[in-house]
Amino acid sequence: MSVISIRIDDRKRKAIKVIASLEGKTISGIVGELIESYVEERKDLIEMSDIMKLSEMSFSEWDNPEDEIYNDL
Questions:
Q1: Interhelix angle for 27-42 vs 10-23, to 10°?
Q2: 1-56: pLDDT as tens digits
Q3: Which of 11, 16, 44, 70 is the one with CA 20 to 30 A from 35?
Q4: Residue 73 pLDDT > 70
């Protein structure tokens, strides 16, 4: 799982915290739900396989035979 930091106005943060508390949720849970909803509504824009293909190029420079010695550490 990854960590993401966002900046939010103090008044909005306090409001979200109160609402989350009343609903028995955490701020992280609410943000997670919002992100899931956002992605679900827009998933037709890009498929996960496309994202994985794009990231393969980024990580390909890390894959080389010289690093095989570190696999067992």
A1: 90
A2: 778 888 999 999 999 999 999 999 999 999 999 999 998 888 777 766 676 676 67
A3: 11
A4: no
Q: How far apart are CA 62 and CA 26, in angstroms?
A: 37
Comparing CA positions, the residue from 32, 27, 33 lying closest to residue 14 is 27
| 2 phi/psi in degrees, rounded to 5 | -100, 160
**Residue 6 CB contacts under 8 Å (≥ 6 apart), including other chains:** 31
> 3-class SS at 7?
coil
Question: Pseudo-torsion of CA 38, 41, 45, 47, nearest 10°?
Answer: 80
| pTM to 2 decimal places | 0.57
